[in-house]
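Blackboard transcription, Thursday session:
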Amino acid sequence: MLRLRRHHYPDHHRRILLRLFHHSTFHPQPLDLPLCHPTYQIWSANTSLGKTLVSAGLSSSFLLSPASSANKKFVYLKPIQTGYPHDSDSRFLFTKLPSLSLRRKFPSFLILSNSILFSSLFAAKSFLSSRDLPFQPEKFNSEMYDLNFREENRISGEEDSSVSELVCKTLFAWEEAVSPHLAAERESGGVVGDSKVIETLGKCLRDGLESEIERGKREILCIVETAGGVASPGPSGSLQCDLPFRLPGILVGDGRLGGISGTISAYESLKLRGYDVVAVVFEDHGLVNEVPLMSYLRNRVPVLVLPPLPQDSSNDLMEWFDESHNVFDSLKNIMLLAYSERIQRLCDMPKRAGELFWWPFTQHKLVPEEAVTVIDSRCGENFSVYQDQKNKFIGQQFDACASWWTQGPDATLQIELARDMGYTAARFGHVMFPENVYEPALECAELLLQGVGKGWASRAYFSDNGSTAIEIALKMAFRKFSFDHDVLVDFLGKDTTEKCVELKVLALKGSYHGDTLGAMEAQAPSPYTGFLQQPWYSGRGLFLDPPTVFMYNSKWILSLPELLYSEIVEHKDIIVHAAGGMHMVDPLFQRILVKECQNHKIPVIFDEVFTGFWRLGVETTADLLGCVPDIACYGKLLTGGVIPLAATLATNAVFDSFVGDSKLKALLHGHSYSAHALGCAAAAKSIKWFKDPQTNHNIIPERRILRELWDLDLIQQISSHRTVQRVVALGTLCAIELQAAGCNAGYGSLYAASLLKKLREDGVYMRPLGNVIYLMCGPCSSPEVCSQLLLKLYQRLEEFDKVEEKLKSC
Amino acid sequence: MLRLRRHHYPDHHRRILLRLFHHSTFHPQPLDLPLCHPTYQIWSANTSLGKTLVSAGLSSSFLLSPASSANKKFVYLKPIQTGYPHDSDSRFLFTKLPSLSLRRKFPSFLILSNSILFSSLFAAKSFLSSRDLPFQPEKFNSEMYDLNFREENRISGEEDSSVSELVCKTLFAWEEAVSPHLAAERESGGVVGDSKVIETLGKCLRDGLESEIERGKREILCIVETAGGVASPGPSGSLQCDLPFRLPGILVGDGRLGGISGTISAYESLKLRGYDVVAVVFEDHGLVNEVPLMSYLRNRVPVLVLPPLPQDSSNDLMEWFDESHNVFDSLKNIMLLAYSERIQRLCDMPKRAGELFWWPFTQHKLVPEEAVTVIDSRCGENFSVYQDQKNKFIGQQFDACASWWTQGPDATLQIELARDMGYTAARFGHVMFPENVYEPALECAELLLQGVGKGWASRAYFSDNGSTAIEIALKMAFRKFSFDHDVLVDFLGKDTTEKCVELKVLALKGSYHGDTLGAMEAQAPSPYTGFLQQPWYSGRGLFLDPPTVFMYNSKWILSLPELLYSEIVEHKDIIVHAAGGMHMVDPLFQRILVKECQNHKIPVIFDEVFTGFWRLGVETTADLLGCVPDIACYGKLLTGGVIPLAATLATNAVFDSFVGDSKLKALLHGHSYSAHALGCAAAAKSIKWFKDPQTNHNIIPERRILRELWDLDLIQQISSHRTVQRVVALGTLCAIELQAAGCNAGYGSLYAASLLKKLREDGVYMRPLGNVIYLMCGPCSSPEVCSQLLLKLYQRLEEFDKVEEKLKSC
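(Written on the board underneath:)
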């Protein structure tokens, strides 16, 4: 479909094309962000709308306000600068503020500095020659020159006024005044990747903070000014709004003709990436653009209007800054207030949560306020966690629970899904399903039946979660069994409410299929099923004790229990018993059981709610078992892990047992949001994304499996560790049972708590299933990240071992 | 928080402000769109990027292509034109095409016309004087002048070539070259509302279609060119992208510095409103902007680059058009292909759906392909339905099923929710809930406990749908009852899997609480619960036959059944039995029952899944009953009707019965997407929106109820109709039971089918519950729309009556 008319651009631009496409799914790790003072990102709807004027105005309002006598520090960071050294936004602030200070009645005592860290060779040479400084070849490393130049200035103010400080920094600079991705490509071969920018910015944000905190109260305001518009590419080609800073923002809008549209669209691009915008500000062009903007924003975000800039480009803007002073004061106050409200909210959240929430599977008495995790956002596999220790900050933790086994998207897919969720909500909202068809539901059904259901399933039945998918599957299986075994001779002639025969499921001990009563009845008695939890539970099954497979002491072990075998009525199956403690059931055993059931016309249900969609390294575990079911249930990763949706797939024979002349013969089960458009759209996007080698680099295309994510050596080492009883590592899952006895074992055990607490400090968010712990990643997670997780775990196991030894010896 | 610096704009702009805010939640009805030929909307990332050049290029490629000899018609519509008559985009096409035609080797025989329909007084006077035409005061009506001017031109082409036609129309024009909302305010007092624009555009789109279809095959391409950028305000102040046209679009991007960002943001604003964009095209400025754009779009949308325009503004562009010819040919082919693919897909959808879907509550044998509704999109309360009768079109139907009783948003809220869904998916994706807190979940819990739970509830337990909310409520109630009645003396000392006592619920006959086994057990035997549907169902309750209330023959009737009363163990309650046939249970009866239960320490559950959140005109039916429960369940409208989420609220006393030292005492029930961020964000937005008189004009603030939506006279008339047995009209619900006997009555009945088929033709989408039919609107629906629905229903009842009479007499 692509028809590109190639015009007059030079050949080296082709390289950008290739590079951009190659890196299109790469996403750098987000960075830790200090929260002990406000930090804002300045965005703009387009180039040249005055971001730097806003930064300068804010610095003036913050540092030169006569009312405040406190020591203050304003930090201005410009991560990406093109047109350097002719254009230098950090230098603009550095040179403007003294003049502004001198115009005050009571000028402050000011220390000002301006630094430039790295630049391209061209920019470095221009800069050095303009300053009469020598070029030092040893400072030219991997295509960037380590300028590390700093200039300083001091303004003596009133005797009794305190010292305030302006710190300006340009992080990376290029000479040509074009978009950073072009300048970087032309001048430095594209070596400045997103990780480099984020790492350097992180360092600058943390720079000197320790000493600031020790020094005591100094009010700080920090500004990070972006380049170009919100979705302008940075030096790597990634859009700036796609970089995982996620600082609160100020949007500099457009007051010109057409500027309403540009401002609203830029605002929406930021929102679509999870950014909070606390104010919109723009230069007046006499078109009253603030009116429609305020209407659009419904007064929830303030809109501020700056006076028109003088037409004369030689004007020193001093009068304009004077005239704008009130606006900048207002803007600064909005920013400071929004910051303090945010901190207050984050601080209060654990307490409020403990008071209002009723968490599932949680004994509230065992969760003190300090154990509650405040999650400010997530980006791909990482949580951004609010932490309030020595100082406040947002730290990163790898979500090794894969958000309760559902999580799949990397950061790129997450943003794509966000756009799809917006589109689908706008286009379809929710549409009732029966007798209707709409694109997301149809596409999702097609992908399910061509994918996990390929070769056996012919119908897709949608519901909301794994439990309901199982309840539906049971109803299908009951009918099919009754149909095949003449339990129901005439569907309409007799009273169908009469009990004909007692139906039971054949299932595996230790399995778990959900918490609604029907799903519970299909599992063996356990702590989840007692009278205390659900007095109606009776356990309507024959429950087999299956052989399991695991690694211990670097070797794979097959554990054979005493087999129970009796008359079977129906069968439920799952290759990994997840909630039951991550046991891997012997696939051969399962295959034989499935075949035997099908020989007796007993419908077989695969519960793939947990195991489906690459959780175990394949799209469907039918591929691992080498056999297919009559009915199968899907959920969790089905939508990529952003929104609930479940599907029960069935063969045509199962479907046929519900077809007839009466509505009463139909499957009278449904949920109002059946096949809801958002869920189906998320599923359609994720199913395609996970199996496409272009978007999921873990896919081995010819074999339709994921490459190994868990390093075998490390897994063997862990399995040989003295604290470890067994390891199961398959696909995205690595589960470890710790050696434990007595009350340390089992679901109620708190044995692993201290170990996991330490791992949180390492940036790994895990939760135990009693004495079983696990690491879970997404289908797109990189093996490198997985190895880091295993290493961290191994190190903490060593420590854990020593502590346990000490406890035993006491 | 709003700090607006008011600068130098004149006072009359204030009026715009007020008007915009006043109309901020008004949304016009979407229009029927013909689909028998392709129609595209041309959007632009900013003003002056060349939308009209693209339109002209397309018209030339479509009409002047030598390859095709068929008769062709190109329709160009410009709904909104400012700067008129100096600027007239439709006239640009009208005057350019002849010159372009003459440059061809084989010019076509062309008929061209250009019309202007309405203009402001200023624009009319300028236009008339430029043409030496008289001003006719009688044509000046409600601030707009009915110009209705048409000019024509003919180009003689080759003898044997067929006649092609270019039709250009400007719909509304103003003189000043500013944004339409300003021009309209200044020149015509803002009288051109959205409805007027949409209605006129609809007329132009349908204009002459009948005769075209009769005349036979003439290839037609229609273009609707917007004004300014995608989010530029139209004459009413509404953003152009917010008007419910929802035609597929072409985006004219920006090739300049900063243009990547503007183009991406504009694209995202369109997606956020459910628009499909089939191509991006822009003028080359030598900056290779197509490379990052293609990367962003992942090759799913083609990007085309036009050669740079000549700098000289007097240039007649003939050479530029020649040079661009290939690009326009490609663009035209993309548009024609996308159209035919779309039509093919829409045509195939009913068949595909019938083959792949397994619809809930549906006997597939009774749903022929032609009965399947193809829903192309929804906008507020309306479905856009693909229809393929005499000719193909997208028609509008009011969704009177409120999409299975969940639907709430008007079109404005739907777009707000779309943006919130995008933001929340980007910021949080999904975050596991236990022991965690994140903003959407906390805000949602706060709003629930301050709203429907106010005065009694202290905890919010989240799940995915009504069924699971009920299963959770039952588990809570069992525990509380056991706790209060010493059924469990020691939670940890004894084997908790042992059955202590048989617990039953006290519930009402005819009630329905969902389709999972636990929820089913709490309802009386019915067609849903027989062996055929769920062999495990036993009906674990005492089921009372309650008194009900309804209107018949213009009078309210209280229907008293024989009351059953026996020892009670627990109680479930609901004010309207929805799925059971829309029976309204006597509130006094319910209040007394609740009080009696609570006197006996029997926990009371309110099932508000259907009735909550304004469905019955109040936020919680506790207000109607005058008593509060111990536990209550919410779902459906909780999220405004876009995404599944449920909540079970409970008192502190209920919560306390789960608190202890062991995890095993906690409520061990949960779903992986518990309190998922998207659902909570949708709920938080909707809860606030529905109860705020600023956003929901139906709210009577001081009484916290909705105004009457159903006209009493009409309801009385319907209740007196000879086909009607009873009517229940309350809040957003109007249910009607038709007189029916024998197999015409009951859930399996198809009695109402013919009636509802007729109503679909009237644009009302309804589904029956046997011989009960209902109209359901949203909490923000206007009483005017509701009255129209009642009128249409009444008319069809008259007809139905006659047919039934005839059948009986046969």
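Lecturer's comment: Residues 457 and 651 of chain A are 4 Å apart (CA to CA).
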